[in-house]
């Protein structure tokens, strides 16, 4: 069975997922083995590579959240899932070879693209994480920031009260420290600008450029300063 992803076509063969691999895939597989051994069962298990050089992973059951659920249950369950994942990465020696450079201070191994389209849901409950290609060593706020952006959601068309409530709900459910909350608030705008630049510069983001995701990220970043004083405040 052929499955469509954001950048890749993947295949479900005999109950396992076959995906295009990259130079970073070996590091990702080591990370996935580590979090599994630490008790985090909501990420795929790696099974090496097939004869065509594609990585082979276990299938994470659930519906991928392309409908972008933002209910309280979706926000809380996603934030708690992220916290369990981050905690499971503790003790992993990151080394080199990731697709993205590390972001200081390194606290955990970030997923790197924590949004509904990389989560599996049972109804509105987040039950699994997929696509770790963008994993990188970094601070907790790095994943929390994008989670807040997508789940609050921090879109100009969303009423301000809802944005602030959703941001606080995500941070509270994650159990974010004051430094993590401050990292989210201080870095959200630059994070979105970096996302826009990636869409503009990475030749693989053909569809995203055609759909003007970069324009969206820049517009959303420009609207954020109005929120920064109270975003994620505990």
Number of domains: 2
Report the uncertain regions. none
Total beta strands:
10
Could you describe the largest sheet, including whether it forms a barrel?
Answer: 5 strands, antiparallel
| Helix-strand pattern | EEEHEEEHEEEEHHHHH
**CATH topology value of the largest domain:** Aminoglycoside 3'-phosphotransferase, Chain: A, domain 2
Instruction: Provide the gyration radius in Å.
Output: 17 Å
Total count of helical runs of at least 4 residues: 7
Shape field:
globular
How large a portion of the residues is in β-strands, by DSSP E?
A: 15-25%
In helices, the fraction of residues equals 40-55%
What is the name of the CATH architecture of the largest domain?
Alpha-Beta Complex
Strand order of the largest sheet: 1-2-3-5-4
Structure description:
With about 230 residues, this protein is an alpha+beta fold. The protein has two domains: about 1-60, no CATH class; about 65-225, Alpha-Beta Complex (Aminoglycoside 3'-phosphotransferase, Chain: A, domain 2), CATH 3.90.1200. About 40% of the residues lie in helices and about 15% in strands. It is built from seven helices and ten strands. The strands form three sheets. The protein has a five-stranded antiparallel beta sheet, with helices on one face. A hairpin with a 5-residue loop joins strand 4 (about 45-50) and strand 5. Helix 2 (about 70-90) packs antiparallel against helix 3 (about 140-150), helix 2 packs parallel to helix 4 and helix 5 packs antiparallel against helix 7. The longest helix has 24 residues, at about 180-200. The mean pLDDT is about 95.
């Amino acid at each position: 069975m052929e499955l469509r992803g954001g950048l890749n076509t993947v295949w479900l063969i005999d109950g396992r997922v076959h995906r295009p691999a990259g130079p970073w895939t070996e590091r990702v597989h080591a990370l996935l083995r580590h979090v599994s051994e630490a008790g985090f069962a909501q990420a795929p298990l790696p099974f090496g590579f097939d004869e065509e050089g594609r990585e082979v992973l276990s299938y994470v059951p659930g519906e991928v959240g392309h409908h972008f659920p933002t209910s309280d249950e979706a926000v809380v369950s996603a934030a708690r899932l992220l916290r369990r994942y981050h905690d499971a990465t503790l003790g992993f020696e990151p080394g080199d070879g990731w697709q993205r450079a590390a972001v200081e201070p390194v606290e955990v191994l970030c997923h790197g693209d924590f949004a509904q389209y990389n989560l599996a849901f049972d109804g509105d409950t987040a039950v699994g994480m997929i696509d770790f290609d963008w994993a990188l060593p970094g601070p907790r706020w790095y994943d929390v920031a994008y989670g807040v952006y997508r789940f609050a959601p921090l879109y100009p068309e969303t009423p301000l009260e809802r944005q602030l409530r959703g941001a606080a709900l995500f941070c509270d459910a994650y159990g974010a420290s004051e430094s993590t909350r401050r990292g989210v608030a201080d870095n959200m705008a630059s994070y979105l600008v970096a996302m826009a630049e990636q869409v503009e510069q990475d030749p693989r983001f053909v569809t995203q450029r055609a759909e003007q995701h970069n324009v969206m990220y820049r517009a959303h970043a420009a609207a954020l300063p109005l929120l920064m004083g109270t975003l994620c405040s505990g």
